[in-house]
Amino acid sequence: MTERVTKRGIRDFILICILAMLVGTFVPVGVSAATTYSRTLNSCIVKAKKGRIVLAYNPSQTGVPVYARTSPKSQQYGVLGFGDAVVVNTKKLKMNKKYAWLPVYMDNLKDAKGKKATAYVRMGQLKLLSLNAKKYSSNRIIDKAIKTGMKYLGTPFILGGLSMTDGIDCSGFVGKCFQMAGRNLASWYHTITLEGVSRQIFWHNTNTPLTKEELNKMKVGDLLFYLDKDTSGAIGHVGIYIGKGMMLNASGHYGYVYPTGGVCIKRVQYGQRYMVLCKRIIGF
C-alpha cells in the first residue's frame, strides 16, 4: 500500500511539473503567470492621431518600476511613485495588438539614434488619460507656456537653477515657461514672487484629497502651490496645472532626475504632498 501511494505521488508530481512548463511557454518573457495582464491600446493610437498626448500615471502608493526592456531583469531606470506620470510612446503601438508592457518615453535619456529613449512598465499598474496637445488652453500665452515646458521634460532639478536644459528649480521653471511664451511674471523667480502676481482661487486644507468642486474651479494655467514639508511649513513648491488633475513642474522633493524628479508631470496630489493653494495669474 505504501509503495503504491509513493508511486502515485511521484507520477502526480511529474504531471504537475510538465503542466507548469507548458503554461510557462505562453507567458511573455519577464512576466510571471500570476501577474500577466495584456490589453489592446487602440484608443491611445486614435487619440495620438488626433493630436492628443497620452499620459500614464501611478494611482497607488505601490511603486511601479520602469525598465529598459520588457523584462524585470533589464536595467531599471527608476520607480514611479504615487501620482508620478510619464508620456506613452504611441509610435510603438499597433492597432488590435495586445500588450503586456506599456512603452513610455524616458525624456532624460537618448537612444542609439539620438532620439528620446523608450522604457517599459507592466500593463495594469498605471492608469491612462489624454490631453489635447494641439491646444492645452484657449489662452495663447498659457497654451504656449505649457507647450514650452513640455519640451523640457527630463531636465534635472537644481535648486536655484535657471537653465531649461542643464538644471532648474520649481519657481524658475514656471517663470521661464511664461517668459518664453511672452509673459514676464517677475524680475526674479521664487514662490513668493509668483504668489504676488496671481490671485487666489481657493485654499485647500492639507492632508485631504481635492473635492470635485475644487477640481472644477481649477483652470489650465493656474499655479498650484505646496507646503515645504508636505503637510507643514511655508509654501515651498509650485507647478502649472495642465488639466485633468495633472500638473507640469520641476520637482526635487522625491528625487532630482526624471521620471520622479526634475521637469516632469505629476498628479495634483503626489507622494505625500497635497496642493494647498490654487492661484490664477493676474490678467488671465
TrEMBL record:
Keywords: Hydrolase, Protease, Thiol protease. Pfam families: NLPC_P60. PROSITE patterns: NLPC_P60. Residues 139-282 form the NlpC/P60 domain. Belongs to the peptidase C40 family. This is C40 family peptidase. It comes from Blautia ammoniilytica. The lineage of its organism: Bacteria, Bacillati, Bacillota, Clostridia, Lachnospirales.
